[in-house]
Amino acid sequence: MCMNVQTIIISNDNNTIELLKLYIQSFGKFDFLTGTDDFAKTYEKIKEFQNCILFIDISEYQEQALNFVSKITAEFPHCSVVALSDKPDADLIVRTMRVGARDFVPIPVIKENFVRVLENIYGDFTGEKVKKSKCRIISVYSNKGGIGKTSVATNLALELAKITKENVALIDLNFQTGDVTTFLDLKPSFNISYMFQNLDKINGEFLLSTLEKYKDTSLYVLADPPYFKQSENVSLKKIEALFEILRKTFSYVIVDTTGGFDDRAMKALELSDLILLVTVVNLPALRNSQRCLELFDKLGFESDKIQILLNRYMENDEINAKDVEDVLSKNIYWKIPNNYFTMMSAINKGVPVSFVNPDSNVALSFKNLAITLSDSLYRQRK
Ligand SMILES: Nc1ncnc2c1ncn2[C@@H]1O[C@H](COP(=O)(O)OP(=O)(O)OP(=O)(O)O)[C@@H](O)[C@H]1O
Ligand SMILES: [Mg+2]
Description:
CATH class of the largest domain: Alpha Beta
Number of strands: 12
Order of helices and strands: EHEHEHEHEHEHEHHHEHEHEHEHEHHHH
Bound molecules: adenosine-5'-triphosphate, magnesium ion
Number of domains: 2
CATH architecture of the largest domain: 3-Layer(aba) Sandwich
């Protein structure tokens, strides 16, 4: 049932307006009032209403849009402002928060992210506590080896833990050649095969007290088994049960997957909320990514659930980002720059890239990706 809260969308892009309108209407708790690119008219409308929400796309006319947000939040405390942009970097997000926006949503908008924002706002209006930290499981996948899955999974997991301060699990489902422990220089006494053998006895408290935290962060690593034979009997049911425990215990679960199309990998992807499909700019990799997308489609995965992560990106590559989008018929969600020196130095030292050089282009890209994928900015501000 709607609760008499009006929503207004400002954007120069009609597609964005249409998409948000659709999500707002399917959420069903707020009224959709209008979509416009007119600041002055919006100001007049907001004056009229007691409770309203303004979604403002600040991708273009950024300064003007930020000034408008500042004016609205100062004059109309009854209006919640959510900013959106197709250039979601950490500095912009911080600036947006400083001028009073309560949330920031990156464009392209992932439905799940947007609905969470709506749920949070709804929780504030009704006083109902939003179900705390609905866990998000993010699998980093490619059917090709050596493409950067482990690099992405480890660095993303660490940044998520640093930014959100919430409990993040990094799990290595690469039973044969898992190398999360090498990337983070860990020798855990407890590994995933122990979990599989004792699923009936393990609960969240046990996990949080037994798993080792990575340095002084809230990242918990569930390593691959040291011996291959330890993982031979892992059934799909066991993977389901493991994911269920992890879902109850952590705010984010990052899964480093195996490269193939085997049942267990597909089960992990099916149970994930988001699949980051890692690819690089070369034809064999792109063809393989095409195959993955076709398979995911056949498996009935929602297209929103799969996002393309272009790794080792170079501005002056012969094949550019637009070509990649054309080949895959899908937008690129994120680009990680090519930086062999920093990546190798991190791997050789057994640390995440931000420990080697936090200002490097790769470290910043992982940090911004984590910011983009986390929904905790609002919670942090409270
Ligand atoms: N953005 C990047 N820039 C430069 N080098 C990179 C980048 N990402 C990954 N690499 C390099 O690519 C190599 C493979 O990376 P990684 O081990 O993460 O791939 P993978 O997909 O997990 O491989 P596997 O299939 O063996 O599990 C590593 O040497 C890493 O340093
Ligand atoms: Mg790997």
